[in-house]
Amino acid sequence: MPRYRRGFDVDEAHDWLSRRDRRLGTWMKRLGPIQAQPGWAKTFDPVDALARAILFQQLSGKAASTIVGRVETAIGSSRLHADTLSRIDDPGLRVCGVSGNKALALRDLARREAAGEIPDLRRMSVMDHDAIIDALVPIRGIGRWTVEMMLMFRLGRPDILPVDDLGVRKGAQRVDKAERMPSPKELLARGEKWGPFRTYASLYLWRIADFTVDPKATTNRSQD
């Protein structure tokens, strides 16, 4: 049974993609190398991460952080798990600012953890990414995109392409100079060329989507 390490060789990924896709490679040269993600080397607790993902949904970072802080104070722990979340009832969660739907999602997560349905980091290390997605998306409030972000930024799996992400689709549109964004199905087919480093390609597509030319730099060049 193969064991998956957290993270991958970004230099190898950079060289592979540069040779594999000339259009993307041009952008990669323009933007420069993207380094290994810091989350790959940090301690990672899947259940706690999923609980925080639920609490952060559809909120600004500041508002969500405030709510998480209240929950941590109420349960007397910075660890969001079945045993600690059992210390607070649903009215208590509402006082903290947690919506009814999110409270239901947290309870579902806790129930599934207690039943042994949530793989821990050790179990995940021998699961391919599709198996991890299949294990986690049944949790109330957890969608495929949330799991894909975990796979990319915390587990460091090298071949994830979040085809429903608007930023990734916009980046692909700019790479191909297309009139419209590719559909998820079209992006999935387009991304076959980027395997087995579709995660690294996605990191570039996000940057490409957000890239703007500095008008001051343009002005300065015009005066040279």
Structure report:
The structure is a single chain. The protein is mainly alpha-helical and 224 residues long. It contains 14 helices and no strands. Helix 1 crosses helix 2 and helix 9 crosses helix 10. The chain is elongated, with a radius of gyration of 20 Å.
How many strand units? 0
The shape is elongated
Number of helices: 14
Mean pLDDT, all residues: 93
Task: Please bin the fraction of helical residues.
Answer: 55-70%
- What oligomeric state is this? single chain
Largest sheet: none
| Low confidence ranges | 217-224
What portion of residues belong to β-strands? under 5%
Helix-strand makeup class:
mainly alpha
What is the H-and-E element order? HHHHHHHHHHHHHH
Q: What gyration radius follows from the Cα positions, in whole Å?
A: 20 Å
For the termini, the CA-CA separation is 60 Å
Characteristic terms for this protein:
about 220 residues, mainly alpha, 14 helices, about 0% strand, elongated, disordered C terminus
In short:
This protein has 224 residues and is mainly α. Helix content is 60%, strand content 0%.
Layout of helices and strands:
Elements: H1 10-20, H2 22-31, H3 46-56, H4 61-75, H5 82-85, H6 90-96, H7 100-114, H8 121-124, H9 129-136, H10 144-153, H11 166-176, H12 184-190, H13 198-210, H14 215-223
